Amino acid sequence: MHRHELTDKEWERIRPLLPPARGRHSLKGERRFISGVLWLTRTGAPWRDLPRRYGNWKSVYNRFNNWSKRGVWERLFKELQIEPDVEGSILDGSIVRAHQDAAGGKGGSEAMLWDALEGVLRRKFMPLSIPEDDHGTSS
Asked: Does 89 reside within a domain?
C-alpha cells in the first residue's frame, strides 16, 4: 500500500456511502479512484502527474468532475464530518508558512502602514491646467 492510499479502515467507512455505479465500471475500482483523488489533494500535483497506478489521469479527472457536479463529494464529506474535540484539539502554527516577501521588512507595522498609504495616495496623474472658472463651459 502506498503512502497516500486509503487504509482498510478508511475504505470500510467510505464504501457504504458511495453512490451506485453509473455506466461503465472503473477498471481500477472505486477504492483506487478515491485514493487517486486523495493523492492529488495531498500532494498538490497537477492532474497530468497522477501516477498510472490510479488509472488514466483524464479518466480520473472526468469521474471526479462528474461526482462534483452530482454533489457526491459534498454528500460524502458531510457524512464523514465528525464533531471536533475542542478540549483535545491541538493547533500547531509551526507549519504555517509566510510568503517570501513577508520576511525581513524594514521598520515595524507602523512604518509598513505609512509606506502602503503613501503608495496608495500618491498622485498618479498630472493636474489639469484649466482655470477653475472654465470647468463645464463650452464655446
From this structure: no
Contacts of 68-75 with C-beta under 8 Å, sequence gap 24+, read 70/19, 72/18, 72/19, 75/17
The DSSP call for residue 91 is -
Q: Is residue 125 assigned to a domain? A: no
Cα-based angle 122, 128, 130 (whole degrees, multiple of 5) = 155
Q: Is residue 36 part of a domain?
A: yes
Other C-beta atoms closer than 10 Å to the C-beta of 84 total 8
Residues of the domain holding 36: 28-80
Please tell me the predicted confidence (pLDDT) of residue 48.
94
Query: What is this structure's pTM?
Result: 0.55
50, 77 contact by CB (below 8 A): no
Indicate the length of the chain as a whole number: 139
Burial string for 110-137 (b: 16+ CB within 10 Å, else e) reads eeeeeeeeeeeeeeeeeeeeeeeeeeee
